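pasting for ref
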Amino acid sequence: MQYTDITIEICGTSGDGTISAGGVLNDAMSKAGFSVIAFDSYPAEIRGFGRCVTKSRFGHNKILAFSDKTDALISLDDNQSLDRIPFLGKKAVVLFDNKPLVKVKEGGSIAAHVSPNVNLFGTPFVNIASEAGSIGRGKNFASLGAFASLFGIDPAFFHQAITNKFKAKGEKVIEANLKCFNGGYKSALESYGERAGGDILLPKENINNHRILISGNAAIAKGALNAGLELYFGYPITPATPIMEIIAKALPEKGGKFSLMEDEISSIGAVLGSFYAGKKAMTATSGPGLALMTEMISLGVMAEIPAVIVDAQRGGPSTGIPTKTEQSDLHAAVFGGPGDSPRLVVAPTNVEECYEYIVKSLQLAEKYQTPVIMLTDFFLNNRVENIPLPEKLPGQILDNNIYPGGSEKGEYQRYKLTESGISPRAIPGMEGFIYTSTGLEHAENGKPEYSADTHTIMSEKRHRKINNALADMPKPEEFSKDDSLDLGVVTWGSSAGAALEATLNAQSKGLKVGMLKVTSIFPYHADDIRSFMDRCKDILIPELNFSGQFANLIGHLHKKEIIRLNFATAEPIPVTEIEKKIGDILGLGEK
């Protein structure tokens, strides 16, 4: 059976409606029944002037990562699109405006630069939009109409997507954009007919009837709201701001409250204060904001106060590259803070896990009375996937606090030594359960105590509690066909999709390669990771940072030196780069 697997890019400059067109394309292809993964790239400036690119991959089978070759490029601005030519695959299709408003300088058209094996389809996007009454706008949807015509996709899917996108703006806006799309469809059909080289084969069964098309940021916000979030405190920072924007609108409708804070320090302080008072709260930030939160996070460790922080990593250090992706905050998330300040760190690998893990983070924070950091990154936060509709959460998920028993009334010890390390947590206002809470080292009753014995005992208690949390943290997931492996790939975060596709491709060639996906970053399931590594001759850890931070964390579990594959490109790891490394390790390049 022939399967569809196609990668499409739309490239333009700010103001061309590139991102809007990409969103409609993704929605339409999801409605057609395909598995979808998509990602937008845009300038870092607040009002960016420069290249905007949407990249989308669609297929019958589950899409795990992006291809590094583009099958179809829609150029809304030829000058910006020239840099996308090297990514075109063999026999790729390029759609461009063959009658632009401004005269193109010699050699300025993308048609003058592509290789002879590329299929060019010129369509007058701007003229079509103007004829539809959308002067200066609408060429983006005219280009989508041409794309749908050339690849034989039912325009009804795009009609639904356009209507859905603009329904809040009224019938006139919907009608204008539909006219632009239909004009592009008709023009390409009349001009090219069957020249596109074959229709896209639609799935026989639409698997997306019970799925939603959603970004990582939106999944985090939805999960937090469904898990009973009561308070959100935030300060804008790329790429975490959309989490705040979604929650700011929805939380008051659920009886909660949102507060825009003056900075990240006040945000984490308010989260700690809220949990201290018994209210479920969270914040989201990126690397620079996490750095500012360090002191307050360590206060949460010492005072054993829950907190949930989403760290949407981006290119660093410092302000770095705000609109690019990286996995370089791992050291800061696990170790950042004065003294021994253990906390829980988890890292989802796809959009579906973004939903699951924010729910899990709120549970863990409350049960284990500690800060929880959820590591995402720009690629994962902004990428879009169509995922199964999240199941309704059971009522018991809303309260994971461990309360003191009635017998402790009047003699309550907030930091009572227990086998689990978890002490019963009273909420202020509970009669007979008054206690002292401080960032100073303290005895069981919470009063400051600086003796060597107390510090040793309490340090051990805090670490014991964190280690015991492993019982509730997600275990590593293995993808292997053999008990004994020539190579094991260990992966984390958003790079897991590319690593899995590379691993599955290697297995399809008969290679003894397996993969282990780790989502509990700290503490980590050392026994499970070591067990997998012991079955592998070599271990490869690909990650999107310069120093190999995850390899630094778990590399000692392997019997020999870890093989690292580190990228500091600020772009998602290409599947082909991992495949090439696998081949090099197994000596396939020499044959």
